[in-house]
Amino acid sequence: MTDASDAGRRAFLDLLHSQRVWDIELPAFDPATAPPAPLPLFHAWFAEAVAAGQAEPHTMTLATADAEGLPDVRTLMLHDADARGWHFATHATSAKGRELAARPYAALGFYWPAQGRQVRVRGPVTACSPAESSADLHARSTGALASALVGRQSEVLGSTAELDRASDAAWQRAREEPDAEVASWTRYVVEAREVEFFQGDARRRHVRLRYRRNGTGWERELLWP
Question: What is the pTM of this model?
Answer without folding.
Answer: 0.91
